[in-house]
Design brief:
By secondary structure, this protein is an alpha/beta fold. A seven-stranded mixed sheet has the order 4-3-2-1-5-6-7, with helices on both faces. It has a six-stranded mixed sheet with strand order 9-11-10-8-12-13. The longest helix has 21 residues. The structure holds NADP nicotinamide-adenine-dinucleotide phosphate. Its EC number is 1.1.1.3. Belongs to the homoserine dehydrogenase family. It catalyses: L-homoserine + NAD(+) = L-aspartate 4-semialdehyde + NADH + H(+); L-homoserine + NADP(+) = L-aspartate 4-semialdehyde + NADPH + H(+).
């Protein structure tokens, strides 16, 4: 039986769902795939919980009762003492700094699966350095959920590129929250700020919705796809349309933004008034390979197009290539949420495990 030993960092929405999904799939994987997935260590930013083989369904109670403060070296020492094979570190944190541990983890025998986008969106230097370290240590790094959550965007793009397909253009409605906001705003006779408030109440936006409206997160995802196609790009090179006016961003408080968000309505109402009968507004990220241009912006789309017919908070991606011709390859569906993201993480673990002895 092949054994995979998972150390899970981040027990929030995604991380806790990963644990539950792994535990639920364990028996079937043992019987059908001859594969044993164990989770001997789980950790959040301050506390770690260690067991001999794997956590069980009471992990939350046990974590609270028996977890203790830790350093990353404690985790490494523990897995070394136990002699675990096939180690996989899962980064289900939302941390800017956790990626500082990646190199050490890789050198100490871990493969990495990340839902966290940070490692792929820092400088090109960091990006290349990480890959050098992976090659040198014979380790793998999977991060399908960085773009489109559980949707198979990165593997599809990567596979096409590897197979020698000429990819000319990639477009996407990358953000679930902005998808919902513009799908609703285009259809209903409500002001933009009303729709935004509705999205906040449904928990679709970040606690500070300016994070979504700034377009930076979409920019990060676009950068990840560009780098997948070997374009040497930095986040600062992406043209991002920030939907938040300068005076409500930066030093201005969230409270001030909430009081004045109706000031966003004018420009967006005008854009809506300029639409033809068969058009809607969509928030997209676009990558033109020939020019290397990366843009995040609002566009008018035909209602009948893949983006134009989007519903709720769904994401959609169009990949234009030589073989697919005028009609792009389209991948569409829920592009956010703990369940689909965790499933994408588990799928990454399984794809990784196929490459291990
Ligand atoms: N939710 C989605 O739809 C979605 C989709 C795709 C990708 N993602 C990505 O998945 C990641 C997790 O998202 P989430 O929604 O689960 O976030 P979350 O609920 O905020 O959970 C984050 C977890 O990370 C832990 N953490 C923070 N810093 C850490 C550190 N230095 N070491 C170990 N653990 C640390 C936190 O622990 P404390 O409680 O101790 O701070 C918490 O348990 C994020 O990077 C997000 O961008 C999410």
């Amino acid at each position: 039986m092949k054994k995979i030993n998972i150390v899970l960092f981040g027990t929030g929405n995604v991380g806790s769902t990963v644990i539950n999904q792994v535990l639920a799939a364990r028996e079937k994987l043992q019987q059908e795939e001859n594969l044993e997935l164990n989770i001997p260590v789980i950790a959040n930013s301050t506390t770690a919980f260690f067991v001999k083989q794997t956590v069980n369904r009471s992990w939350e109670t046990n974590f609270s009762a028996s977890g203790f403060p830790y350093k990353i070296s404690d985790v490494i020492d523990y897995v070394t003492q136990q002699g675990y094979e096939n180690l996989v570190a899962i980064d289900a944190t939302a941390s800017e700094s956790f990626v500082d541990h990646y190199k050490l983890l890789i050198e100490q025998g871990f493969h990495v699966v990340a839902a966290n986008k940070v490692a792929n969106t820092l400088s090109s230097e960091f990006y290349e350095d990480l890959r050098k370290s992976l090659r040198k240590n014979g380790k793998f790094f999977y991060y399908e959920t960085n773009v489109g959550a559980g949707l198979p965007i990165i593997q599809t793009l990567h596979g096409l590129y590897q197979a020698g397909e000429e990819i000319t253009r990639v477009r996407g409605v990358f953000s679930g929250s902005l998808s919902y906001i513009f799908n609703t705003f285009s259809e209903e006779s409500k002001s933009f700020s009303e729709v935004l408030t509705e999205a906040e109440k449904k928990g679709l936006t970040e606690p500070d919705p300016r994070v979504d409206l700034s377009g930076k997160d979409v920019g990060r995802k676009l950068l990840i796809l560009a780098r997948e196609l070997k374009l040497k790009k930095e986040l600062s090179e992406i043209n991002i349309q920030d939907l938040v006016p300068k005076h409500l961003n930066g030093k201005s408080s969230l409270k001030n933004f909430q009081l004045k968000k109706h000031e966003l309505d004018g420009d967006l109402e005008k854009l809506k008034a300029d639409l033809e009968e068969d058009e809607v507004i969509r928030h997209v990220g676009e990558l033109e390979i020939a020019t290397g241009n990366l843009e995040v912006k609002l566009v008018k789309e035909k209602r009948t197009s893949a983006f134009g017919s989007l519903k709720n908070a769904d994401s959609s991606f169009e990949i234009y290539t030589e073989s697919y011709g005028e009609q792009p390859l389209v991948i569409q569906g829920a592009g956010a949420g703990a369940a689909v993201t965790a499933r994408g993480v588990v799928a990454d673990i399984l794809r990784l495990s196929e490459r291990l002895n």
